[in-house]
Write a structure and sequence with these properties.
The structure holds two protein chains of two kinds. Chain A is of the alpha+beta class. Helix content of chain A is 39%, strand content 19%. Classes of the chains: A alpha+beta, B mainly alpha. At the A-B interface, helix 2, helix 3, helix 4 and strand 7 of A face helix 4, strand 1, helix 9, helix 10 and helix 11 of B.
Amino acid sequence: MTARVRAQRGVCRNTGHHDPATTWRACGGAAPAAMFAVALTVLVGASVYFFVWGKWNPPAAITPVGNEIDAQYRLTLIVTGAVFILAQLGLAFAILRYRDRGKVAHYSHGNSKLEFVWTFSTAVVFLGLGLLGYKAWGTRRLTPAAPNAVRIEVTTAQFVYYFRYPGPDGKFGSTSPKLIDPATGNPLGIVPGDPAGRDDIVVPTLTVPVNREIELLIRSQDVIHSVFVRELRLQQDSVPGMTVPLHFTPNRTGRYDIVCTQLCGLGHHRMHSYLNVVSRSEYEKFLTQQERLLQQTSSQ
Amino acid sequence: MSVKVEVSARTQAARLQAASGGPTSFVRKYIFSTDHKVIGIQYYFLALAAVIAGVILSAFMRLHLAWPGLQVFGGTMKPETYEALLTMHGTLMVFFVLTVAPQGGFGNYLLPIQIGAPEMAFPRLNMLSFWITFLAFACMISAFFVPGGAPLSGWTAYAPLSSLGQVTGPGEGLGQTMWLVSIGLFCVATLLGALNFISTTIDMRAPGMTLLRMPLTVWAWFVTAILSLLSFAVLLAAAIMLLLDRLAGTSFFVPAGIVVSGKLQAHSGGSPLLWQHLFWFFGHPEVYITILPAMGVTSHVLSIFSRKPVFGYRAMVSATCAIGVLGFLLWGHHMFVSGMSPYSAFAFSMATLAIGVPSAIKTFNWLGTLWRGKIQFTTAMLFALGFVSVFVTGGLSGLFLAQPAVDSLLHGTYYVVAHFHLVMSMAAIFGIFAATYLWFPKMFGRMMNETLGKVHFWFTFVGAYLIFVPMHFVGLAGGVRRYADFTAVPYLWSLQPLQRFITWAALVTASAQLLFFWNLFRSLRHGEKAVRNPWRATTLEWITSSPPPHDNFAGEYPRVYRGPYEFSVPGASEDFVMQSEGDNV
């Protein structure tokens, strides 16, 4: 029977010819094998090209920790890239090489030794990658900010950011949710009777001095929002009921976007502010200006 | 010692019951049926309805993202509408497609047949789980039509956005309540189904069908059922708690002092992070609930069409179980930047990287199965090969997100969207397609058109990559996900060329799915008649007629003599040996 079936061009060789429903055309054919191999090779080539080109890489990091994260990102890219290339091209090779050419398949149930070596080496590579990358997380998250860090409170509400500076006394005044009223100029609900709150500065954009450690104290008034600055390689959710501290030391002046990355309602996509990293003298100027503004409004 | 009992009492009872022949009335046979095959097909068509809805929603989302000023139905899309589409797309796809089709659909239909059983252990419970799932689906869809519309809090429904009612946004009123009721019902149905799968696998196997002779599909459905039982129970509890927060004034997830639009909320003492812990304790195993059956199908199909035994069958079983266990230990990787203790990130990160190991074992074994095989490019095989490719690609991007430091850049961006769509959604969909092309002849007694199937494959495979590879770059550049449009932030707007490319790719790929639907529905009536074993495969579903009779084996229940993938055995007369063939054959 096989000779006659083989003679029929394009009929799959392993099927019986006695029933039309069991035959289908060209099932071990060169065409699908070649298409698959080409598709996988193009996938590998294009991916490598676009990652190396780096057109869509984020702008340069502006903190030392950000550079560490970039290094860890590149290491991960190299490791996973190598596995990606080997696996996709291995698949392409197997498809091309072992397509049905009329020979009998090799009967085997596997190879325990190979299996063990593979398991062990992937475990070492994957877990090793995690251990190496943990330092960048630890520097930022597991060590507290230095006592002389510039402390600024960040408060989020549907769909705005408020940044509060403690003023000359260095202390944040107490707040009460009952007093929150953006219409009368008290969006954070600062208690009027508290002397520590009288000099607190509240602004809609974040201005910080360059090369100083900054500690943000992140809070939320309503739902969960977040603070994301891609140049800082940093995001943190703001959670109602919690104050989450976060510190970083920017080393380049400039204006950077702050966006919200936690779905927070219909205005999520326009919740946006700026991080201004300025020289120390400009920072002093900014503070003085804000203090003067505050005195003018409170004396009116 | 008494003689070993060959089949359990439940199996004997089920055989007697099934031998009496199936019900003859239309309603008992096709609607309120207790036959696992009918129920499997019901689940499958429910998933088809859900996937059509889900894809249409995503098409509107993609159109709006690419051209935010576009007028559709006489107006531009409002941001709250976009967020509602986003929520419903995710919910429909994750629950009603990726959970329903592989497990409820194919698992229901094939698990009893593959282990040689006449029925599920609890046929009435099976019927109940389908109809509760149907009710959940109806409830979910009707959320679109209540005042305020569908919820906008995403498929993760983070509190307190989801717990305070209409005040946090349109859709957060009755729409969110309907969503929660639907999810609660879905949990109940899935729990009942999981109990049934577990009991059936343990208790109803044919004589000789030892655990290590079960097809890898059965292993996948079995472990998936255990995951479902343990994780959906937690989601059910969480959904009830959130409902109570909304309707009964409790404060499980709401802390004191919340002010929304100037109004102080009367809640105190709850924790928004508690919802995230409960949700992701379910949500991460859920990823494996969707992908394990696809892995099982891939192993099954690769073996059949390489004409080779599965490479490392025992390693495959161990990897499936390892994924099941580890899958419960890494939910916190969704929460690295949530405000959770930064110390716990280490444990969650390591567990996440560790689950890469059994995934790598599987990939290795799939390549090993192909190696020195005799590969035949049926449509089912193309989708299984495609599964391996997209699973590898999507899995590897997970190694970035598993590291909390790198996640600090990529969290909440399109990089995550690209990652999970490839590794979970595309991979699972490829598994569903492979299963459809493989088992359609068994389920409906007719063949699907292979040429149309192959065209469908190439559009889907190339399309999946054209959609999701560029998405990684959007994310890498800091492109934030879940934004209704990118007009407010200049750097996001600069990524618009990529977004438009993705939209074009998505529209073409989505349209190509019409080929599949055409093929499916046309083949139901006009496909060539299928024989018992059209693919010359080895497992028990292929020894019975296509489609199988009411009791699956027409009274001749099989006995199992060998492992599930005995292809190209030296000395055998054919290149496959059925599981039910004795040694003297």
